Amino acid sequence: QLSCRIASHLAERFEIKPGDRVAVLATNEFEFVPLFFAVQRLGATLVPINFRLTGREVAHILDDSDATMLVYQTQFTPVLESAGAGVVPERKWTFEDFAKFAADNTAPLRQRSQPFDGNATSACMILYTSGTTGAPKGAIITNGMLHWNSINTALRLNLSQNDVTIGFSPFFHTGGWNVLLTPLVHRGAKTILLKKFDAPRVLELASRERATILFGVPTTMEMIARVPGFEAVDLSSLRYMVVGGEPMPLELIRTWEEKGVPIRQGYG
What we know:
Strand order of the largest sheet: 2-1-3-4
Oligomer: single chain
Distance between the termini: 33 Å
Number of strands: 11
Number of helices: 11
């Protein structure tokens, strides 16, 4: 219902239509998720931008993606100012105002007013690479790719509606969306979102909320294992941990397996 209401607003106020690119410069926020589904519903494309980039790097992504609209947190205004007025879209919405709109329960839901305009081959997301050998390149994700990734992830990891995870991977990376979040939404399972990685907080929530699966890179898993009292924390609900991004040291694998949590390494 919320994503449909956001979609209606994007179409009416900002004239977003199929094929448009909606860039977002923000940290991990709950509202980011229904915003993605709203953009997807309109047949448009979400372009999450790494909030750690410089103005010049942000300018490259805005220009390269041909962004139609920008949703941004005001804390990044100086970055946008240094990016230059020529590349920043005229259609803008501060994330703070967007979040207020999303939280307004008095606004009409209009959940049936926006049909799903995309199809399997429509680009629903563009994620930019790290650019280690040059300028970052936009990797196009289609609705079909998102769907089959969800199916294959669920089959490979035995996901169900009973699963619980703690999400802390950034939304400007595919891991933040497509390793667990979108497959778990697809299943009707539970994701507890954190704005940023906080090892003690992740450990606390994983135990308290009875998390069944976690995803991270080896560095984050090592930081969690180093939290004081790690040995005594109850993680018996965790079926396993999924890691990616780089090889996980054998000793760290053993640390987690001694805790009763098997490690499953992903690639791709």
